Amino acid sequence: MPGRIQSVERAAAILRLLAGGVRGLSLTEIARTLELPKGTTLGILRTLQHVGFVEQDAETGQYRLGGGVLRLGTRYLDGNELRTRALNWADSLAGRSGESVRIGILHEGQVLVVHHVFRPDDSSQTLEVGSLLPLHASALGKALLAFDPLACPDEPEPGTELVGYTRNTLTSPEELQHELEAVRSHGWASEKEELIDGEVALAAPIRDRRGTAVGAIGLSGAIERLCDDEGLRREQISYVRDAARSISRELGAHPW
């Protein structure tokens, strides 16, 4: 049986290192972290640059992941009918609401973000495609828990609490089930500072031609923008539900 190819292993190690950083890394930092000779590291980086997997900042000389990796990593997402049909509606929702928009699907007991539209302003933002969110502490997750039959978690052991992310996270399974009943009743989900302090999110389920919830679309933003003295702004809820219904119709769901 052929042995492993060392250069491929080293290239993979460099990509993993760059993927785990919040900023670019210099040649020296990469070589030192991976305990590789600088010359070897530079040769691998130049090859990865050539194929589009790594980019180098012209001013700082630091390296970061390139667009080729993003296209490779989201190849299966591009073929996902939900994401393809939802692109225009997600853009429209971001424009109407003035907030960041995410589309999520159920993935191994979590929410996988398959599409993300930045808030339409000049603020610094981070692309969240591929990130995972907890079901019980996110609006997208609650929408899936309430309407996707495959999202129902196993019956917890008596006294078991869910993971808390802020002081507002619903950690009691009983309280969560009570909220999910309300979500089913009014057709949309929300979370107020349950995952991130100061952030509010709204979401509604996306259904296919069988009427089954196959995903959720929602928006998120600062509590000061999305809430008023009476609570969540009603127009934002309307925008989210309109977008979910439009995408559902694209997927063949009957109007409701």
TrEMBL record:
Keywords: DNA-binding, Glycerol metabolism, Transcription, Transcription regulation. SUPFAM superfamilies: GAF domain-like (SSF55781), Winged helix' DNA-binding domain (SSF46785). GO terms for biological process: glycerol metabolic process; negative regulation of DNA-templated transcription. It comes from the Bacteria. Residues 5-67 form the HTH iclR-type domain. GO terms for molecular function: DNA binding; DNA-binding transcription factor activity. Gene3D superfamilies: 3.30.450.40, Winged helix-like DNA-binding domain superfamily/Winged helix DNA-binding domain. Pfam families: HTH_IclR, IclR_C. Residues 68-253 form the IclR-ED domain. May be an activator protein for the gylABX operon. PANTHER family: HELIX-TURN-HELIX TRANSCRIPTIONAL REGULATOR, ICLR FAMILY, HTH-TYPE TRANSCRIPTIONAL REPRESSOR ALLR. This is Glycerol operon regulatory protein. It comes from Haloactinospora alba.
